[in-house]
Amino acid sequence: MSDFKIKKDFQLRNLLYKVLIFMATVAVIVYFMPRDGKFNYQFDIGKPWKYGQLIAAFDFPVYKDAEVVEREQDSLMREFQPFFNIDRKVEADALGRLQADYQKKLRATLPPRYFHFLQRELAEIYAAGILPTEMLDSLQTDSIRSVMLVDHKLASQQYIGELFSVKTAYRHILKADTVHYRPDILQNAALNDYLSPNLAYDRQRSDAARQELLDNYSWASGIVLAGQKIIDRGEIVSRKAYNILESLRKESIKRNESVGQKRTMLAGQILYVSIFMLCFMLYLDLFRKEYYNHKGGMSLLFAGITIYCAVTGLMMSQGFLNVYMLPYAMLPIIIRVFLDSRTAFLTLVITVLICSVCLRYPHEFILLQCAAGLTAIFSLRELSQRSQLFQTAGVVTLTYAATFFAFELITENDLSKMNGAMYIYFAINGILLLFTYPLLFLVEKTFGFTSNVTLVELSNINTPLLRRMSETVPGTFQHSMQVANLAAAAANAIGANAQLVRTGALYHDIGKMEHPVFFTENQSGGVNPHKALSYEQSAQVVIAHVTDGIKLAEKYNLPKVIKDFIATHHGRGVTKYFYISWKNEHPNEETDPAIFTYPGPDPFTKEQAILMMADAVEAASRSLPEYTEESIGKLVDKIIDGQLADGFFKNCPITFKDIATAKNVFKEKLIIMHHTRISYPELKKQE
User: Fold this and answer.
1) Does the pLDDT of residue 36 top 80, yes or no?
2) What is this structure's pTM?
3) Angle 389-392-393 (CA atoms, 0-180°, nearest 5)?
């Protein structure tokens, strides 16, 4: 297959991926967007009406306020009479047991007149009705005044106060006639054996009676006629006007709930979301090609927008919590950590603009979220410590509160009417923002990024691999430390990622741990094992430290960006010492240059180019006979110009200006590193 066809297939697959991720993002966001009818006015009690004069286009009822409805329905339900069926069998069984017990055992302790008294009282109590204690308490709690007792097909009204429970019936018998019947003698009859509930709740009749009451309830307190003025621009929305506007909203939704209207709204939402997502993709294509062509970057950006828009739509459609509790600033923080500030802010703006159409006050929402997002990006330009997130969360919370307070001062005339609940939402938002730290680990593993937090952890010399390196190859370890300092200083000077290049420098030579004595910095006692090898064999041993380093990196699960530093720090360069030595000894012979060539690839990022330069100049500087500004300057120029001439930097986005700046940094740092100390005078002995 030709290279052209391979490239074309790759571009086709890449385009297909972008189309699919675009369509999936739009579909998910629109699916969660609320579609509750066409009424696009935003209003609230005590705030001015910001639209033009509103005239009723049709007749509609003015619905009562929710508090009024609840109060009136509670009052109406006091007239509700639940239905209970009388079970005559319970009474007959109780009186039968009393008769039988009297004949068997009660005759000795209960005089006849007491027996007849009990019969009369039990008959009266069962005629009034006995309810389970819990049911009677529930009726009294609900302020039910009376119930309907159904005996066969005849229903009669009975007041709650006339009903009994087993407990109240027991007390009633004992106290019914204490003058003629002593309670202690009555208690000998074990009255509880003859008292049982004889009323059963009739759910069907009760529900029908309740529904009939509610059906007769009037939900409206008035009517607005077509052509009647409702409110005009600048007028304060009073409680009465608010009820009228809410009633108009409900009626408008009812009238526009047709299939055609829903399809129109759905089409508008699809178009709205598609426009913003297309603009976002154009920005990436024009200004951030590296993210646009990187599936991990595209996936992270689109996933972040999709999740926040979907959660916002769900919260608004279900009336769940408050959107100001959702930490929108977390999105730009995560993108800033892995990508860059401009992309982070634009992603936030796109997300907020899409979410704003779901809210009642979109301009207020946009203002607050943009201010908080900018603050978050500025305060967390480089995340390396957990404490930074606490500072950012505090700053973001204060920004929310200050911006909202300023907005209220502009729109409110009375400070007592300010919304205190919003400040509680902002505090919850700040707390939730702290969960960014554990979320970074999940994002790294899911989308293949490496955060500065991970790089800082990897650059700790107490990690197992670096500790082993310091113990087994101390010379290489010291070389790596010096290279890390040089490369980080150069990266800072040209605006590259200093932490990334520092961490990469610490690991770039870990492969030398496999055969440490073959590298001069680890040799001692004048022993050089290369003397026993041919130039080709020596070259292969030295070149192997790159492949050995990659194997160690995989064994210790180092991120891909660190593996790239190991692979590219020599690029496709040649082990010049062994190659030139072989050529000098075999002037008329040809050899395969691949034997003396590193596997590469050449550097393809600024950071990798800086490491290649720093590694070469630091190693070469150790061979200088004397350390002067002139000798160090010539060495740095010679090595880096040679790398440039060999084409090592053709595939990385580093400029000539960056290379010149890096040269100056290397010269300054090497002069400081190799400075000469003054010799201290010795004290002369006096004779």
Assistant:
1) no
2) 0.65
3) 85
